[in-house]
Amino acid sequence: MVAAMSAFRQRFAQVARQARPLRPNGARNTRSYASSHGEHHEHHAHNVEESLGIPVYLTLGVIPASIFVYWISRPGQDGELSTMHKWFQKISKEYGRDWEQSNHLMTAAIEQAAHDRHLLYGAPRGRHFELTYPEAFGHGSQMNVPAGHYINLDKVIAHYQKQHLDDEARKAKKLAAASQHSAPQDAPAVRVGFVSPAIGYGLFAARDFAKDEFIFHEAPMMTALFNEKFSADKNLMQSQVRSYRAVLAGPSRDVATVAFPALAARTGIAPAPFEEAADILASPAEMGRYLVHGRFAGSTVTREEYLSYTSRLPVAAAPSEKDVREACLEFFKQYAFDVRRAARAGVGTAAAAAAAAVPGAGAGAATHRACIYLLGSLINHCCTPQSTGASTASISCSGLIKSTSTSSAKSSSSRSSSSSKGPNCSWRIGPSGLAHFVKPRHICVQARRAIREGEQLTWDYGKREKGFECECDTCRSSGWFGPGLGNLGYLCTVL
Ligand SMILES: C[S@@+](CC[C@H](N)C(=O)[O-])C[C@H]1O[C@@H](n2cnc3c(N)ncnc32)[C@H](O)[C@@H]1O
């Protein structure tokens, strides 16, 4: 403070000196030699701008700061705590709470660590070691073992013999179970039928199937690159177009265009006349050409149904390369199975991606192989009813179907019948578990429950394209649109 005051005095004296008027030249008692031009020129004093210096400002700043601190430290009326006091209290309370919490966590962690340590110290040590090869019986110290004397190993041998026999029995049981889940019988399995002009074809059971029975096993018709985000990547689209063109150039051309008329129309191929299409649709040699197990049993598609479906399809007059690419991409979005994902998931439930479109998806999604199957890709989607909850309308595919208010009696009846609703099939792609007979990339369709002859085969596509209007039995019977309005379908906006 003393130093600041002294600096202030010095500065003040300096400013005062500079402010004094200059004496006339003649009154000067000192002579300047600064100029070589003599004394006849008038000399002005240099005008040096000097600031007051930081200490002055600091000193001046201290005054309002002190007033402010004084003001916030004063208690309020009626002995109310001062603002400063309240502020400190608030900070210390928050800090104290954090401190207490971290202390508490730390103590709990230390206690747990101590407990675990005691547990490990106190745990009885394993006193036996698995011998991994027979010669290990003979290993051991030769100390104190007289020549020709060996430890009696009868009990050890009996133990391992028993273990071996138990293992063999377990394997035999597993094989017996596997033989029950043998490859689909080489018997009529499915026929193709028509569902509605909006849904198109579907696949129907050609005989009764028991729960878990394999229905058919089919090789892929087309395989192409596929991006799980369905992004319109050029390589990916070219691969799809190539794959479709390869089919069109081969012996499957007719069956591919009849089975998938919408794609054919977009690529410029008009739907075949009904007589021609009917022969192909009913022919095991055509529709069943990719079957490995199970037989194709014909078609129930009538002329009216066929025409109601195909007459709606706009046939592109001269589709450009871009049009064909887009048509193929769209087709893959809706009909392809993501082989890698399905293989990972084993029996497919929600994993495969028959219609899993994610609009606007970009780079970064994994690109791998996807397959289109001639029969497998004709199986329609059915939502899985939720087994719990009080809503008859809620179904597994969508969080967007909101609960409808239902009576408890209604909800319990929905629960009890849920096992007979929903998709009746599941699929597996490639060999997995007991379905060792399935070849890589081949699809095998399995009954999830008993299926009667004539029943439509369905499964849960999992994710679905935004705006997909589902017309499956689950949605129609959910009463979402009220009695009699089920046919309107429900707008599934999932994904
Ligand atoms: C994998 S394909 C199934 C075969 C298709 N019905 C056909 O005739 O080509 C999927 C397409 O079938 C239709 N589809 C399948 N299940 C449906 C459902 N539950 N509700 C409405 N349309 C469905 C949709 O047009 C969908 O894009």
TrEMBL record:
Biased composition (Low complexity): 404-421
InterPro entries assigned: Nuo17.8, SET_dom, SET_dom_sf
This protein's GO CC annotations: mitochondrion
Region (Disordered): 23-45, 404-425
Every SET domain range: 188-462
One Pfam family per UniProt: SET
TM regions (residue ranges): none
PANTHER family listed in its UniProt record: OXIDOREDUCTASE 178 KDA SUBUNIT, PUTATIVE (AFU_ORTHOLOGUE AFUA_8G04320)-RELATED
Designated name of the protein: SET domain-containing protein
